[in-house]
Amino acid sequence: MWEIVYYKTNSGRIPVLDYIELQEALKIVKIRNAFRLLKEFGVEESLLDTKKIKGNRYKGLCQLTIESSRIIYFIVRSNKFVLAHAFTKKTNKTPKQELETARKRMKDYLNA
């Protein structure tokens, strides 16, 4: 069994949950179902659309794709996902700003 943790900002906001709340009902169901599968089976056995983000600068970051939604996470220990950032992808290439936001949150979390 895996644990899912949401990154929380210093002001107490939880960006991934904020993002999810803004989605349509059907997409919210799909995202929650993906989280349930991650929690139960992890990345390898869940059969979800996940991939590691390329480049040394983003080492450790991974991306979960649910339709046009992207949820960037990293793994702590061997059984803990930290959901760092979420956004709607509108272009072929993931915007650098989105990756930088996730990278900063990962660094913040790991250094806390």
From the alpha carbons, calculate the radius of gyration and give it in angstroms: 13 Å
Mean pLDDT: 94
How many helices does DSSP assign?
Answer: 3
Helix content class: 40-55%
Question: CATH homologous superfamily - what is it?
Answer: RelE-like
Largest sheet: 5 strands, mixed
H/E series, N to C? EHHEEEEH
Number of strands: 5
- Shape, please? globular
The CATH topology corresponds to YaeB-like fold
Low-confidence runs of at least 5 consecutive residues? none
Specify the CATH class: Alpha Beta
Number of domains: 1
Strand order of the largest sheet: 1-5-4-3-2
SS class? alpha+beta
Share in β-strands: 25-35%
Structure explained in plain terms:
With 112 residues, the protein is an alpha+beta fold. The chain has one domain: RelE-like (YaeB-like fold). The chain has a five-stranded mixed β-sheet with strand order 1-5-4-3-2. A hairpin with a 2-residue loop joins strand 3 and strand 4. It is globular and about 35 Å long. The two termini are 25 Å apart.
Strand-helix topology:
Layout: E1 3-6, H1 15-21, H2 25-46, E2 49-52, E3 61-66, E4 69-76, E5 80-88, H3 96-111
Parallel strand pairs: 1-5
Antiparallel strand pairs: 2-3, 3-4, 4-5
Annotation keywords:
112 residues, alpha+beta, YaeB-like fold, five-stranded mixed beta sheet
Summarize, please:
With 112 residues, this protein is of the alpha+beta class.
